[in-house]
Automatic annotation (TrEMBL):
This is NAD(P)/FAD-dependent oxidoreductase. It comes from the Bacteria. Belongs to the flavin monoamine oxidase family. Its cofactor is FAD.
Amino acid sequence: MSEITRDVIVIGAGAAGLTAANDLKKAGLSVVVLEARDRVGGRLWTDVIDGAMLEIGGQWISPDQEALKETVEELGLETFSRYREGDSVYVNADGQLTRFTGDIFPTGPETEAEIERLIEILDALVAEIDPDKPWEHPDAEALDRISFEAWIAEQTDDQEARDNIALFIAGAMLTKPAYAFSALQALLMAASAGSFTHLVDADYILDERVVGGLQQVPLLLAERLGDDVILDQPVNEVHTTDDGVAVVTDNGLTVRGRYVILAHAPILYPWIEFDPPLPRLKQQLHQHISMGFVIKVHAVYDRPFWREQGLSGTAFSPYELSHEAYDNTNHGDERGTLVGFVSDRNADDLFRVSPEERKARILESLSHYYGEEAKSPIVYFESDWGAEQWTRGAYAASFDLGGLHRYGADLRTPVGRIHFACSDMAGAGYQHVDGAIRMGRLVASQIIEEARA
């Protein structure tokens, strides 16, 4: 058994925890970051698989993500734009492929008009939502008692319009079926990005990448903390008294301090024994949030062959196994990389079959967008965050029906000396690295203020 003492103990070496730790250190407080994994980064992870550099976790930066952009610039990292020259493709319910440009899918004039009308309705509602306090909207309770799927059905009889509107939130963001979360949760997702229109615009929401991978953000932040980041230390006990906190890890390390920050996905809180226990409201709250489920598929080819066809690589369909896919070719790489996503119920089904059949089904789906050549990558890899012990899903946690209005205001509330920070509880930048950085900054400022009082 070993023991150390710090002013603040941070549990989790992702973007939120490392941002908080750096801000606290700058303010003159001593810190330690305890990480369960053998690496830093949390849901950011860049690795070399069969000779190809792949961003296994989060990777994109959008123009509104000011906190992330400031951090990237301050760390001296270089960015590059996602490839988007040429046509996008859309596959309808009949399997028909159509090339198009712009944001609205080519669904036929009446359905296109209906999609645009629904986006206008959603944008107007989103403009009334404070992403930090969505439960304060006058109609918050009613919006939280109806599923997003049912809410869309109330707005239109056009099934293809319904399917496409649901895709932007359910498949692409929350990675849950649209019947499993509320209209209020959907509005929060859109408000966190500035508008529903932003979610529709892939050129906006998936704008830039970092040369060498986005995991460099937490890696460089951790570098500044040196030996104060300790890996392979899953925390299993948090003890609090009026005088301070004591944190115990699986590997026998005890850290005593004044404050503790839980900077990891909230679904992992039940893995920690709290003494005294968390308040009953917190315990109830944590039973009403869950992670989404998505497989991020990486397919690397000897060249970006789709560009030869005048395609940007951007592809969408609520009717395909891979509901969206993009050109994900690395900066300066002669090879071509596609990244596709399989979410919620489709992901469930794929883990009921063998890995070989799963790969075949996914590549078949990609071939519906790009042609037969998509079936023969030289490198193939599936990011399965549902199998990650210290994440257990992707991209982030969201509330069940009624949960956001009922418990949202309590999600970030400190419990004495215990503070909470992660992208899952952000307003702006919710479930993105930008939100993690914002939450890290916020919690650090709260602790600094308390420590100086």
